[in-house]
Amino acid sequence: MNWKFWQKKKVEKPKTKSKEFIDTLVFAVVAATLIRWAFMEAYTIPTPSMEKSLLVGDFLFVSKINYGPRTPKTPLQVPLTHQKIWGTEIPSFSTLIQLPQFRLPGFQDVKNNDVVVFNYPEEIEYPTDLKTNYIKRCIGIGGDSIEIRDMQVFINGKAVSEPPNTQYSYILEAREELSDKFFQKYKLYQPSKEPPRYFVHTEPATANELKGLPFINQVVLYHFAKGKREMEVIPNSPKFEWNRDNFGPLYIPKKGDVLEMNEKNVLLYEKYITRYEDNEDAFVKDGALYIENKKVDRYTFKQNYYFMMGDNRHNSLDSRYWGFVPEDHIVGKALLVWMSIDSEESVFNIVDKIRWNRIFKIIE
């Protein structure tokens, strides 16, 4: 028997369209945020440092699960943003709360020759997880020794095969001023024009093809000779006559490595020890390393490091210029180009605007 017959049954009010829209939007934002954090994220290529392997205008899927997603370090952030609120200069985050960062298990470790997205280490004005995303090829991993001899990369004393689309710098001298169509035809992007002399970046095979053209006088490889110091190259010291084409040998630290802190190693590794290893009060004085005011003769590294280079070897600011990438800065592995748009083509020419041959191209 129903003893509460006098009570009116509660009738649920139907959701309004605006309430349904808000619920759907909240669900979509939460789902997209989780997918973006833990599984996959879309990126675009803004610079030519990886040409011709990756082109400006390529849109990529980058896997977070291959190397394992990182737990958020900066939780107070507008969803689906990175550094700024869309279309403004307003920061999209607050550093009021900073959490310890951990990496969840992944399918694999970073390997030599992987194309990797990472947070740019030198950008100290942002928390680690909000630094600008860079994409380069991992040339060396922790435990490797890297050396470049006359543009040839050596890992642990063995020559490394170049990616198939590696580019270098050339001085091109023509008999006459060259048209824009010429540069488009041979895909010579961003040439420095002082007709009839041009500074271009291209593949060796294309450079050899240009040498055979009747209106080209010469095509000369532009590179640094051994012993000619390039000031911007690490470790930015006159004691190392290194340049982008003749570099090292340099050991890449791995977690657990114990290195003697002699004068040379202090110059090579002080930045990583004082900046990325969570050492409080670490500093260098008179060529010696101090941690908590105690001189350190041997140092044990707390994480793995990686050496990254662009495939456009003479047009890439990479580990040769700013050093190793710490493991906690690794974002994910670039897997697939899902769309590619040529900025040189008119928006009214959709057929040529889209690079159809690059859609769903696997990144190698």
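Second entry:
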Amino acid sequence: MTDTVSAPESTPESAPAPGRQRPARQGGRGRASRKPQNQARAPRAVHPVLQQLFDLYPKMFGAQFLPLKLGVFQDLLALHPELFKREELKVALGLHARSMRYLESVAAGHPRHDLSGEPVEPVAPEHVHHAIMEVFRRRQMRTDQDLRPYARAQLIEAIEASGLSREDFLLCVRQQDEVSMALLDEAFSELSERAAKREALRKTFDASGKTVAEFADMYGMNPAEVTETLERARLAQAAQAAAAAKALELPLEAAPVEANTAP
């Protein structure tokens, strides 16, 4: 699954931003061997169409990468029919969409943007998941450090942002490989533990008859954190009620839900 369009797999992952030249990397101190400066590897060439895109839309193809809106390929062809050839533009956008910095922006949960740099729509959960896993795999190949905790944290954020249940999210991403499924299992397990703690706090608060400030003071908690936790617990409760109503094909107001006595 890709975010935009496909292109050859020989794409460099970390080509310098269009319009810039990356300085040659110097050897660190104490290394056994260093290449002389005149033998340093030359910067990789930027695809000419990417350079044109950078010149036209620096907000979207410059130093900072942002997820592109769906249909941007057709938009560019319509806006610049004399400038871009269809196949060359497809290859260039494929290079851009598979670059590490672009995948990182998708994995971070940024919304899709139009060519002027304005957000227009969220990225689909399956595309966010694909980007998280691809960034994780590329980084893990380059280090002995276990990067699963970072990937798991990003998956948790992505799952919460999607608002989908476990079943719906898994149906969306359709991942079968062991690593991905293991990370998703860990993420959902942690989310379940968090939800249980939030629900326990909500029930304790409702039974206390206290205000948020009084309850927070009684348990040595931050009132703002108590408020946020209660809100998330109630949203989860409402979502469960909606799911129950849908499953039973009942109107939402007929679905069973606990009375909320909190102020």
